[in-house]
Amino acid sequence: MPKFAANLTMLFNEVPFLDRFEAAAKAGFKYVEYLWPYEYPAEELKAKLDQYGLKQVLFNSLPGDIEAGEWGVSAIPGREEESHKHIDLALEYALVLQCPTVLIMGGVVPPGESRAKYKQTFIDNLRYASEKFKPHGINIVLESLSPQVKENYLMKTQDDALEIIELVERDNVFLQLDYYHAQNVEGNLSRLTDRVKNVLYHVQIASVPDRHEPDEGEINYPFIFNKLDEIGYEGYVGCEYKPRTNTVDGLTWFDAYKTK
Ligand SMILES: O=C(O)C(=O)[C@H](O)CO
Ligand SMILES: [Mg+2]
């Protein structure tokens, strides 16, 4: 049975961020993820995790200048030094938070720019991250994003991410499969799950088309959860969705999976 992680960036927005740890624990979650921890001292977040008996299972490297449309700098030629600073900072936080996995954000490839150059830049920076994280047993994941969320992001299909994982040639770089994006871009989710299973390390879920709770829309998540069990997936499943109304009211789907 999947191990579900509350995504505190998307869930429990009814309360301030630092109160979401308690809310998630009260709702029955044992694991949490969120996009970026950097607004708070790592020690303060670790104290929250400990206070509510939660394990942090994922967070991301910094996104760069979101206002300017950036979504990661590690794929952007000329920003290598900044990328390495982001990676070093992510390592600092991962060690304090005892978080086993970091998503390294690649970046947007502006129209007219060489995708090949961005891809090679990302590969080089991932190798840097791999070397830094390896001694601490921390793994890296890459995620492909649908154009309606982030147009011209370096990785759109799962094959885009698989290609980079292969080219990086490091044994601590894996795939984060977000079924919301995968359904929007390519569908065929059960066969896709089979195809990526050897490098599948983190999963995220949300309904399609509205990115709400996994109990509506065009994806049959109970079937997907059984599929993940079938392939022996032992990672986490991040609940990265926008609640229809109130987070807790929308968690009825979770009742069947909550570890008592
Ligand atoms: O956008 C998503 O689906 C993510 O999981 C990343 O955290 C940010 O792109
Ligand atoms: Mg995601």
UniProtKB/TrEMBL annotation:
Keyword Zinc: no
Domain Xylose isomerase-like TIM barrel intervals: 21-256
Active site location: 143 (proton donor/acceptor), 240 (proton donor/acceptor)
Molecular functions per Gene Ontology: hydroxypyruvate isomerase activity
Annotated InterPro entries: HPT_OtnI_isomerases, HyI-like, Sugar_Epim/Isomerase, Xyl_isomerase-like_sf, Xyl_isomerase-like_TIM-brl
Any Gene Ontology biological process: glyoxylate metabolic process
Any Pfam family: AP_endonuc_2
Keywords, sorted A to Z: Isomerase, Pyruvate
Family recorded in the similarity comment: Belongs to the hyi family.
Xref: PANTHER family: HYDROXYPYRUVATE ISOMERASE-RELATED (PTHR43489:SF6), ISOMERASE (PTHR43489)
Protein name: Hydroxypyruvate isomerase
Organism, as annotated: Alitibacter langaaensis DSM 22999
Lineage summary: Bacteria, Pseudomonadati, Pseudomonadota, Gammaproteobacteria, Pasteurellales
